[in-house]
Amino acid sequence: MKVGCVKEIKNNEFRVGMTPGNVKSYVQQGHQVLIERDAGVGSGFATKEYEDAGASILSAEDVWSGSDMIIKVKEPLEEEYKYFRKNLLLYTYLHLAADRPLTDAMLKSGMTGVAYETLIERNGSLPLLAPMSQIAGRLSIQEGAKYLEKPFGGSGVLLSGVPGTPKAKVVIVGAGVVGSNALKIAAGIGADVTIMDLNLERLTHLDDIYGNRVHTLHSSPVTIEEAISDADLVIGSVLIPGKAAPKLIKRSYLKDMRPNSVIVDVAVDQGGCCETTKVTYHDDPTFVVDGVLHYCVGNMPGAVPRTSTIALTNATQSYGLEIAGKGLKRACSENTVIYSAINTFGGACTCHNVCVGFGLDYVEADRAI
């Protein structure tokens, strides 16, 4: 198979879908790999490294047109829609539930979309989303701490405090992979941390780990509103695979929050879990609503591209090699979890949550293929 990888064109996105090591793995299995020139520079991988690994170096247009499967990091932008075609397989993060124009463009073209974020393993885990969720969760505290600083518009609170001063109050809404990684960093710094979730079993697990170093709360509109009212930093970390994030933090709650407190909405890729969320970028990451600073960067792990690229490609390579080596139909028949990652096929939407969100007809992936 001809496998291609292009440079990401999203604002301040420096990750890349394949490392030189990945290229070597595909080439060793008999595939031809096409790489856009300088695709990996932002992550610290020189074009010569890709050449030495066996890749052909081409323009973006030639990679798109010459590949059977394109491996990316982020969803295509509008200027890339012109490359869509029926016999193309796209393997990347898609987040279609938050992007109707992209959904429509992919369906119209008939292309196949295999989304990292909806692949669900037999144990219920999300192995292709997990590494970026881990990074985004840890970064959320790092970025939140920075934007609490007065020069960046925050209230001037140090997360850990010092002896004789109060610690900053951090509230984490959602105790999944993002939330638990945010908790790890916030608790390690020494902040006063509360984490909330609907899953009592998950909260019990975290309580067993952290004991009286953290507070756990069952999530509800009342407990969320009360908890964030005196928080210095709020982390939104809610995920429903393939579905738009529920708006758990209402705008009406903001008026009772501390002036110059900070919200980091990590769920922004799926529309955000705060009613006031809108997508921002690394070069202009924040905005203020009702006196509360919002950080809503849609590609947070792109700020640490070297770490992010290596972590992501470690996870995506094995499934990508299965698809490239066997073709999608056979790969799915031999490893049925791959069906869960197929969001579009032959003009049909094969992700149930996307269909529900946009009112589209749903076709099960195994039937579509």
Please, could you describe this protein's structure?
By secondary structure, the chain is an alpha/beta fold. It has two domains: 175 residues, Rossmann fold; 170 residues, 3-Layer(aba) Sandwich (Rossmann fold), CATH 3.40.50. It contains 13 helices and 15 strands. It has an eight-stranded mixed beta sheet with strand order 3-2-1-4-5-6-14-15, with helices on both faces. The chain has a seven-stranded mixed beta sheet with strand order 9-8-7-10-11-13-12, with helices on both faces. Helix 1 runs parallel beside helix 2 and helix 10 packs across helix 11. It is globular, with a radius of gyration of 21 Å. The model has no long low-confidence stretch (mean pLDDT 97).
Outline: globular
Helix count equals 13
Derived from helix and strand composition plus strand pairing, the structural class reads: alpha/beta
Count of domain modules: 2
Distance between the ends: 19 Å
Strands of the largest sheet, in order across it? Answer: 3-2-1-4-5-6-14-15
Uncertain spans? none
CATH superfamily of the largest domain: NAD(P)-binding Rossmann-like Domain
Number of strands: 15
The major beta sheet can be summarized as: 8 strands, mixed
Order of helices and strands: EHEHEHEEHEHEHEHEHEHEEEHHEEHH
Averaged pLDDT: 97
The CATH architecture of the largest domain: 3-Layer(aba) Sandwich
**Radius of gyration over C-alpha positions, nearest whole angstrom:** 21 Å
User: Briefly, what CATH class of the largest domain?
Assistant: Alpha Beta
CATH topology of the largest domain: Rossmann fold
Helical content stands at 25-40%
Report the sheet-strand fraction: 15-25%
